[in-house]
Design a protein that fits this description.
The complex is a heterodimer of chains A (180) and B (422). Chain A has 180 residues and is an alpha+beta fold. Chain A has 3 helices and 7 strands, in the order ααβββαββββ. In chain A, a hairpin with a 3-residue loop joins strand 5 and strand 6. Classes of the chains: A alpha+beta (180), B alpha+beta (422).
Chain lengths: 180, 422
């Protein structure tokens, strides 16, 4: 991967984080492709097949995968349209989970860029720490990884797919009212 | 401690003490008198369909392992090794013929029997009666229309008696079509710093908050405002034993504003009325709470959840989505994705509820604040027993009638030493 491309992707992700943390959500939406898939699956505690904690009765059906499937419940499963509606909701003056709003800080690290399926796309891995402070003393740390597909559209990078893997089983925050 | 329960709940006057939402002494009594005695929801049968399938959950604060054994029978046990009391199973779900404790290796069969004890011959001199050290089972376990319940109390009434008239209302959610419902894969689990009774009474009786607290979700197109629907009537129904149901008008399908879902509801209308009977022509049950802490809804999301208590000011929610088993795949998919955008941690409706319940709990730490009773007086004197509905019903669709019945039951259980006194 060319150094120039790496820098471009890094700057793109940092700018995105800054827009989110400054609550410039309409500008953030402009970074998203119209066919966006934005997905945060859940994580289960499951014994691996070689675990000695259980003797598996029916090995043919045993499910070791800890990340929920695409046909299962997810913590978030959004399109550009539903994210636009979520942003519109924040502007109603009655989105109580964000009124007064959270103070967020997205720390984006471990950025890797790979070629994707087509020449105009890049597969980008990153890690995040998202700190949320709200009200007087509330605080939440959301830590995880993202796998994005960025697409070059009219000379600009846009996010066409984002898979967010959160490193929690029981979500320790009372809600997910911010973007990742 | 002897609690003066009458000073905490005066349902006739619509006054509830804030102390029951924050004080640990009261909470400890709840664990004994409510959670260690009542029938509590464990799971839906479709979550453990095959021999060996298991999942872990809670009954009160007790960790519970629910297993379909090799013969196909469902059992539930304290998820605790009998030896040193270690948590036996640390997985959310899976499939097993046996479970082995991580500490010393005691092994239990999926029917709870203690099968293996390392060093049984040399260290125990073969002098351990393994039949006395099995997993500790629940006292009673029973199912209703695929819903699995258990109680720790041998003297609790039968499940069907505990449900009473609520059974028909459960049918309106879980048995509308042949085959009942199936659970969508995966669960939502999250922590809310609130007292367990706040979400229980919200789902059971709070039609009041919808038009204000959730207006932003209504206007941004995630669900429909009741006022915008062609609806007549609806109401609050208390079918007895502390159970609560909210209903919208009979001509309202209580479904998300998604074409394929609305069309589906239209297409099965005659079938559901035929199956559930003419009572369904009076109203459409759309939300409810089964006492004490299982809630369910069938509107912008089709979800059931349990508000597991974790102290007076904390809960862990375990929430699942369900769909009619007989529904076409594209309807199931539309329900799944619409539902998780509305209810769950990121749900545009539910995320605002969590904030309210947290603040309604935490504010009661103030000793002076705690002296002032809460107001549950809406519609006092404007509810009556409706023979047609088989329960107490409010004259207007918004009322505190259901919470008053919920807390009357709570107070009764908190005082009663035996079920005869409840």
């Amino acid at each position: 991967m060319k150094d120039e491309t790496l820098r471009e992707v890094e700057q793109f992700l940092y700018k995105e984080a800054r827009l989110l943390d400054s609550r410039r959500f309409s500008e953030w939406l402009e970074l998203l492709s119209d066919d966006l898939r934005y997905w945060m699956p859940t994580r289960s505690n499951r014994y691996p097949v070689n675990s000695k904690a259980i003797s598996i009765l029916d090995a043919s059906r045993y499910e070791e995968e800890e990340v929920s499937g695409e046909d299962e419940l997810a913590l978030m499963e959004e399109t550009k349209d539903t994210l636009e509606r979520r942003v519109a909701r924040l502007d109603t003056g009655m989105a109580w989970a964000e009124d007064p709003p959270s103070r967020t800080r997205h720390i984006i690290t471990n950025i890797e860029v790979e070629a994707a399926d087509s020449a105009d796309q890049l597969r980008v891995y990153s890690n995040f720490v998202m700190y949320r402070n709200r009200s007087e003393t509330d605080q939440d740390f959301y830590v995880g990884s993202r796998e994005d597909v960025l697409r070059r559209e009219g000379g600009r990078l846009r996010i066409s797919s984002r898979k967010i893997i959160l490193d929690q089983n029981v979500l320790l925050a009372k809600n997910l009212s911010n973007f990742f | 401690m002897v609690l003066d329960v009458n000073s905490l709940v005066d349902a006739d006057a619509g006054l509830i003490s804030r102390r029951i939402f924050i004080e640990d002494e009261i909470y400890q009594e709840e664990l004994e008198r409510i959670f260690a005695r009542c029938w509590l929801f464990l799971c839906h049968e479709s979550q453990i369909p095959n021999p060996g399938d298991f999942l872990t959950t809670y009954m009160g604060e007790d960790s519970v392992l629910v297993i379909r054994d090799t013969s196909g029978k469902i059992g539930a046990f304290l998820n605790v090794c009998a030896h040193r009391g270690n948590r036996l199973c640390r997985a959310d779900n899976g499939n097993a013929s046996a479970f082995t404790c991580a500490y010393h290796g005691w092994t239990y069969g999926n029917n709870g029997d203690l099968q293996g004890v390392p060093n049984l011959k040399d260290a125990y001199y073969d002098d351990l009666d393994r039949t006395k050290w099995s997993l500790i089972p629940v006292a009673q376990l029973d199912t209703y229309k695929g819903l699995v319940f258990a109680t720790f109390d041998n003297n609790a009434p039968s499940l069907i008696d505990y449900l009473g008239e609520m059974a028909w209302y459960l049918d309106c959610f879980f048995d509308r079509r042949e085959g009942g419902v199936e659970v969508v894969g995966g669960v939502h689990k999250w922590i809310i710093p609130c007292n367990w009774k706040l979400p229980a009474e919200n789902f059971g009786g709070d039609a009041y908050h919808v038009a204000w607290n959730h207006l932003s979700a209504l206007t941004s197109g995630f669900t429909q405002a009741p006022a915008a629907r062609q609806t007549l009537g609806g109401g609050t129904i208390s079918p007895g034993n502390g159970h609560c149901i909210l209903a919208v008008g009979a001509d309202d399908y209580a479904a998300a504003p998604v074409e394929i879902i609305q069309e589906y509801e239209e297409s099965i209308r005659a079938e559901t009325v035929e199956r559930l009977g003419p009572r369904l022509l009076k109203m459409t049950p759309n939300v409810g709470t089964l006492f004490p802490h299982m809630s369910f809804l069938r509107g912008s999301s089709r979800s059931f959840r349990v508000w597991h208590p974790k102290g007076p000011d904390k809960i862990e929610v375990i929430s699942c989505q369900f769909v009619d088993k007989a529904a076409p795949p594209e309807v199931k998919e539309a329900l799944r994705v619409t539902g998780l955008r509305a209810f769950g941690p990121s749900g545009v409706l539910e995320q605002d509820d969590m904030d309210n319940w947290e603040e309604c709990t935490r504010i009661n730490r103030g000793a002076v604040t705690r002296r002032y009773a809460l107001n549950y007086q809406m519609g006092l004197g404007h509810d009556s027993f409706d023979d047609g509905l088989g329960g107490w019903s409010s004259d207007f669709r918004i009322s505190d009638s259901n919470p008053r019945h919920f807390y009357r039951r709570w107070a009764s259980l908190m005082q009663a030493d035996t079920w005869d006194q409840v």
